[in-house]
């Protein structure tokens, strides 16, 4: 028997922009006839405020021609920039929406956690929602009873299980939703970027639970912008770009491609005469270098750091696991990552970067880097502290 549990063939998903669907069948028929005759859709309700006219509806392909096979026990990290189609792919796999073209074959029971509160009935209590989700997954009441105490313990909200979910905070909802999805023992677990809602301690707890699920042989699909999390948790990776699958391979291969793709195309981020000074391109190179040479840590991007002189923003940072557990990250970082990188662009001069680095070093950074427009690298440390042992040249 084949060990392929998910097979995706020529999968595409199209949305009609400029038109809001109606509930009445007659409205749908009128819209279809109008489009066939080349006339404005009488039920379009998105207006151009300048002309007071209905815009011409057009098709948007969120996904195009995706072909992919995922085997039993694979842990697949799905990566890509915002708008690349990651969440759409997970919704199709979870059967929340239907594909426009192609087909998906799935063998096994699926549990999905796509956003905070997905699958919850907000009028029911937390306990009732646990049993509701278990029933949807096909579990018997005795099986849910056996898992209930573990779910409550993991979610850490025992005093609120008899409270309606509509009264929960977003953090409480994501705690319970993850606990339910992770302890009902599905054969395929699908996770979108929901862990961004939880605090650092709970995120670490969730990542440890995902590792346990991975080791049990469950197939996991995990969407994340964190290259480090994908490297730590995943066996394979998928990279989406503008709705197309551009890379499928090992987690290291795909994260490398993703970091390379982080370059920006906006002209304001480039200095005159320096085509390769795009902030994103340099950030991708730095991140790839750090991930390769310092695998036992976390990469961060565009982090706001509290310093003695106020808030300073870094483009890339690397932080050790031990410090990650003790630093507050929301709403701003309470200390600088071990390596804090500032990239010179039109938005940040060399002088500004030097000032930033002065205060970042005072806020706990072991090294503060400045990346010049030509790729030159200036590594600075606090006086009396040696540089970290890294095979980094004078240019990136």
Helix content: 25-40%
Q: What portion of the residues fall into strands of 2 or more residues?
A: 25-35%
Low-confidence stretches: 47-54, 264-277
Instruction: Give helix and strand order, one letter per element, not per position.
Output: EHEEHEEHHHEHEHEEHHEEHEHEE
What's the β-strand tally? 14
Order the strands across the largest sheet as they lie in space. Answer: 5-6-7-3-8-9
The rounded distance between the terminal residues' Cα atoms is 49 Å
- How many helices? The count is 11
- Supply the helix-strand structural class: alpha/beta
Radius of gyration, CA atoms, in whole angstroms: 24 Å
Overall mean pLDDT stands at 81
| Largest sheet geometry | 6 strands, mixed
Shape: globular
What does this structure look like?
The chain is α/β, with parallel strands linked by helices and 396 residues long. It is 32% helix and 26% strand. It is built from eleven helices and 14 strands. The protein has a six-stranded mixed beta sheet with strand order 5-6-7-3-8-9, sandwiched between helices. A five-stranded mixed beta sheet has the order 10-11-12-13-14. The chain has a three-stranded antiparallel beta sheet with strand order 2-1-4, covered by helices on one side. β6 (188-191), α6 (200-215) and β7 form a beta-alpha-beta unit. The radius of gyration is 24 Å and the shape is globular. 38% of the residues are buried. Residues 47-54 and 264-277 have low confidence and may be disordered.
């Amino acid at each position: 028997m084949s060990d392929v549990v998910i097979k995706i063939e020529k999968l595409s998903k199209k949305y009609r922009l400029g038109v809001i669907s109606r509930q009445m069948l007659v409205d749908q028929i009128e819209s279809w006839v109008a489009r066939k005759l080349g006339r404005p859709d009488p039920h379009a309700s998105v207006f151009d405020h300048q002309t007071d006219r209905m815009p011409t509806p057009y098709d948007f392909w969120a996904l195009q021609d995706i072909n992919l096979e995922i085997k039993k026990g694979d842990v697949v990290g799905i990566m890509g920039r915002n708008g690349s189609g990651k969440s759409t792919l997970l919704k199709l796999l979870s059967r929340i929406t239907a594909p426009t073209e192609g087909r998906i074959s799935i063998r096994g029971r699926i549990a999905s956690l796509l956003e905070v509160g997905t699958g919850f009935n907000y009028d029911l209590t937390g306990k009732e929602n646990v049993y509701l989700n278990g029933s949807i997954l096909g579990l018997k009441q005795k099986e849910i009873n056996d898992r209930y105490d573990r779910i409550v313990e993991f979610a850490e909200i025992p005093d609120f299980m008899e409270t309606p979910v509509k009264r929960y905070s977003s953090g409480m909802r994501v705690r319970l939703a993850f606990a339910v999805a992770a302890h009902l023992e599905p054969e395929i677990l699908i996770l979108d970027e929901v862990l961004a809602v939880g605090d650092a301690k709970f995120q670490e707890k969730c990542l440890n639970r995902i590792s346990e699920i991975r080791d049990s042989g469950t197939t996991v699909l995990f969407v994340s912008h964190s290259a480090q999390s994908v490297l730590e948790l995943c066996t394979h990776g998928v990279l989406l770009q503008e709705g197309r699958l551009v890379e499928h391979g090992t987690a290291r291969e795909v994260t490398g491609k993703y970091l390379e793709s982080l370059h920006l195309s906006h002209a304001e981020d480039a200095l005159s005469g320096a085509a390769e000074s795009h902030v994103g391109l340099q950030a991708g190179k730095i991140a790839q270098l750090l991930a390769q040479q310092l695998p036992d840590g976390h990469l961060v991007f565009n982090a706001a750091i509290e310093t003695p002189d106020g808030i300073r923003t870094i483009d890339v940072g690397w932080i050790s696991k031990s410090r990650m557990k003790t630093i507050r990250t929301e709403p701003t970082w309470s200390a600088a990552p071990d390596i804090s990188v500032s990239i010179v662009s039109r938005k940040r001069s060399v002088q500004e970067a030097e000032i930033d680095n002065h205060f970042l070093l005072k806020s706990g950074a072991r090294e503060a880097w400045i990346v010049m427009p030509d790729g030159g690298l200036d590594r600075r440390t606090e006086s009396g502290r040696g540089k970290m042992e890294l095979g980094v040249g004078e240019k990136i």
